[in-house]
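sorry to bug you again but im stuck and you know this stuff better than me. what follows is a protein written twice so to speak, once as letters and once as structure tokens for the fold. mainly i need to know what kind of three dimensional shape the backbone takes. anything you notice is useful, everything is just below:
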Amino acid sequence: MVLSMDELINAICLHMAERKGLRPTDVQVELSWDEENGYSAEVWTQGRSQYLVESNMIEAILRYLQSEYDIRAYREQVTLDLDEEITAHVVTN
């Protein structure tokens, strides 16, 4: 299973909104990758920004898989990939 960049952004928006008691539409996300830091996401809520590292992004993806697809996945089943855009590959049994 492959999650698109849009789905990754949705996963992070839903995750951060739930953690902060906001609506998902009140969260903005920008994904990035660089050689020094790897995958990250800058998240804006209530006029403030914070960075999520890859492990935080995978946590959001795991919650998204459970809530949207009813798939119980584990960290080792999810890998992020960069081609034309950032995607997540999920190994399902």
Remarks:
- Residues 5-20 form the longest helix (16 residues).
- The longest strand covers residues 27-34.
